[in-house]
Specification:
406 residues; alpha/beta; TIM Barrel; ten-stranded mixed β-sheet; two-stranded antiparallel ribbon; 33% helix; disordered N terminus
């Protein structure tokens, strides 16, 4: 690690300790509604040296080439960057970067305002295994730890194994050791907002058991789970939709169930599996999954997502779009999970504008459409904070439900 990175980390920790906290300690995922937080966007002048990272498409970031389908509502950000896109009146469209603390602070302020309990910070093993990615994700994580304690929100590490090979276990375990030292994950008094579960700090591992020919497999997954257990962590596992039946998107290997039984929480991946029309035929999986988990003394976190779109990422082929219908699709899922007895909820995602699942504030007025880069505007009749409000209402209902059951 370079002196610059060490100094940046030290300053971030010192700032976090200096601002104080609301004294809110998160001892359990039960009773919480959280979202995934990508934090992977960059702008050329934000200091990260990554250009328009994750905003750009196959041919850079310009009209006709971008990976994002939604455009953020930028009216509340302190710092913004000019883009190559313009609006119909010729004004330059601008975007934020989470590499800036002010951007992350704004996001956590929204979480507090609308009642979202917190976020799982996505930490891509491939990204943090290279200097540029590690520098970026360490910076965003520093910001998030500071903002989480400032606003009394829960925060937790979620590792994404996508694109990894058979060395994934050693990379992940080395990284969590470093993160733990930097952010005092084992010391709840020093970092009260870091999410614990079943008496231990929680770490999420996403991408276990998928049947899409990944270079790592269940042997590597077992090494990760064993390594985290030995280090004293509670574990949430992100698995395919049909994990229980071992079919379709899931490896047909019963060892997956052995690994699941060693974990504390299970979260199956539902994004893109249904739309508003097909959800009623799909949703029976949730209570059936819950029953299996109860039988094996595992907590279950069902996933809800507000919609989906990756037209720009995959234009013109595979331009999938699952409409939001002004929130009715999202509300349908939230309602069913709460009525089915969910004790915790995971929302995909807070800031995912690449695949159109973001619940943070997005814009109705979007840049001028061009072939290959047509942005999806916010539905008419709702405010940019509509999905944050729906998530916050679900969090209130969840807490009331659990109180009634006690």
């Amino acid at each position: 690690m370079s002196r610059g990175i060490i100094r940046t980390t030290f300053v971030a920790i010192a700032a976090c300790m200096a601002i104080g906290t609301e004294g809110k300690t998160y001892d359990s995922y039960r009773g919480l509604v959280t979202a995934g937080y990508q934090g992977w966007f960059n702008a050329p002048d934000d200091g990260a040296g990554r250009g328009w990272y994750h905003y750009r498409g196959r041919d850079g970031f310009r009209p006709g080439s971008t990976n994002v389908d939604l455009w953020p509502d930028v009216s509340e950000y302190e710092k913004l960057y000019d883009t190559p896109f313009t609006f119909d009146d010729g004004t330059v469209a601008r975007l934020p970067s989470p590499y800036d603390y002010s951007t992350v602070d704004t996001h956590f302020r929204w979480m507090k305002k609308y009642g979202l309990d917190g976020v799982f910070m996505q930490r891509f093993v491939g990204e943090v295994s290279n200097p540029s990615g590690k520098r970026h994700f360490n910076q965003v994580l520093d910001h998030a730890m500071r903002a989480a304690n400032k606003y009394g929100r829960a925060v937790c590490i979620m590792y994404d194994l996508s694109g990894q090979d058979k060395r994934v276990a050693e990379r992940l375990l080395a990284d969590i050791d470093e993160v733990s030292r930097t952010h005092s994950l084992m010391d709840h008094g020093r970092n009260p907002s870091y999410l614990h579960h079943n008496g231990r700090p929680l770490v999420v591992v996403w991408g276990v058991g998928f049947s899409d020919r990944r270079k790592y497999g269940l042997d590597e997954a077992q090494a990760i789970v064993s390594g985290l257990r030995e280090r004293g962590y509670s574990i949430m596992l992100g698995v395919p939709t049909y994990w229980r039946q071992l079919r379709d998107d899931t490896e047909p290997d019963p060892r997956l169930h052995d690994i699941i039984r060693q974990c504390d929480i299970l979260m199956p991946w539902f994004v893109g599996r249904y739309d508003e029309r097909s959800y009623p035929a799909f949703r029976h999986l949730i209570p059936e999954d819950m029953a299996w988990c109860r039988e094996h003394d595992i907590d279950y976190a069902p996933l809800c997502f507000p919609g989906f779109s990756w037209r720009n990422m995959h234009y013109p082929r595979e331009a999938t779009h699952i409409p939001r219908h002004a929130g009715s699709f999202f509300r349908m899922q939230l309602d069913y999970c709460l009525e089915s007895g969910a004790e915790m909820l995971y929302i995909a995602m807070f800031d995912e504008i690449d695949e159109g699942t973001a619940i943070f504030k997005t814009a109705r007025r979007v840049p001028t459409a061009t072939p290959g880069s047509t942005f999806v505007p916010l539905d008419e009749g709702i405010g940019s904070d509509h999905y944050l409000k729906l998530a916050g209402r679900a969090a209130k209902r969840l807490k009331k439900n659990l109180k009634r059951r006690r």
